[in-house]
Structure formats: C-alpha cells, structure tokens
Specification:
The chain has two domains: 1-91, no CATH class; 112-170, Leucine-rich Repeat Variant, CATH 1.25.10. The protein is built from ten helices and no strands. The chain has helices at residues 20-27, 36-40, 46-55, 61-70, 78-89, 95-109, 113-118, 124-135, 140-152, 156-167. The longest helix is centred in the middle third of the chain and has 15 residues, at 95-109. The radius of gyration is 16 Å and the shape is elongated. The chain starts with 19 loop residues before the first helix and ends in a 9-residue tail after the last helix. 39% of the residues are buried.
C-alpha cells in the first residue's frame, strides 16, 4: 500500500536495533506476536519499520496487523499517532488493519476521536470494531460515547458489543 509510504520518523540510535526481517519473524508467531517488553526493546527505529510493514501489502495479513497494533508502544510520537489516524481512514481499508489502528490509538494514545467517528459508519462490522476499540479504554469518555451510541444503534451485534463493554468493570485487553 503506497498511500502511506511517506511516513518516516527521525529517531536517535537505540541500544538494540532489529532488522525488518527479525521484526517480521517475531510478529509472525503462530499463536501470538511478541509481548509488550519485546516490542519496547526493539529500539527507537522500530516505529518506522513497523509502519513500513503495516504498509506492505505483500506482508502476511496477521503480520501487518500485529505491526500496526505494536505501534501503541510509541505513544510519545506524534508521527505514529498521525500514521494510525491516516491508516484507519484509508478508503477501502481492510477491517482487521483498521481495527488494529483503532485499538492502537485507544490503548496507546488514549485517542478516542477516530473510533468515535466510526460509530456512525454505515457498515455494521466497522461500527462493531469501533465499539470494541472504545471498550478497550478505561476512561469515562469512552463509556459515555458507547452509552450515547447504544441509544441509537439498531444492529444486535453492535448493541451486544456495547452492552458487554458497559457491563464490564475493566476494559477489554485481548491482544492481536
């Protein structure tokens, strides 16, 4: 996907720099990807590489998804947030990649705005994904958005996702 190929970060050298091939290998695990500590240890250049993997249509879909979701660990980077916002908004974006971007924004950046905007999307699967992402936030603002959406939502799947989130006392924390 060449649409977002221009995203590059200037980062200082890090203690441990993995190659793209090493990161892809770690992201390609059968049951799950690398844990949080592993992603944080990849160094300052990791966001640029993760974004390149996320943009690479030739990469395995689950590897792309995990690369995008791993960006949540770089919340101090404005360029990462901008990339995730842009990725979620790409017309015709695949649902799983969009959801990974929304989840990373909510979990890593406490950025609810993009997910909130998708709550009114005409596609049920997108509204459900946006509700799921907002359910991952522990904040009152996310709960207020979900409560407001529940008042007008007609699809039973989305209503169930929202109801489950509102009844839970802890945010959903399943990983990709």
């Amino acid at each position: 996907m060449a649409l977002l190929s221009g995203w590059v970060l200037a980062c200082p050298a890090a203690a441990q720099q993995l190659t793209r091939a090493q990161m892809e290998h770690d992201l390609a695990g059968f049951e799950q990807g690398p844990d949080d500590a592993a992603v944080r240890s990849w160094g300052a250049e990791a966001p640029s590489t993760l974004m390149a993997i996320g943009n690479d249509a030739a990469a395995a879909p689950h590897v792309r998804q995990r690369a995008v979701f791993a960006l949540r660990h770089f919340s101090q980077r404005t360029a990462v947030r901008d990339y995730l916002r842009a990725l979620a908004a790409v017309p015709g974006q695949g649902l799983f990649l969009m959801r990974a971007a929304l989840d990373a924004l909510v979990i890593g950046f406490d950025d609810l705005s993009v997910s909130a905007g998708f709550l009114a999307d005409p596609r049920v699967e997108v509204r459900d994904g946006a509700a799921w992402s907002l359910a991952r936030s522990p904040g009152a603002a996310a709960r207020a958005l979900l409560t407001e959406r529940l008042r007008v939502e007609r699809d039973e799947t989305v209503r169930r996702t929202i109801t489950d989130a509102l009844q839970s006392t802890a945010p959903v924390r399943a990983t990709h």
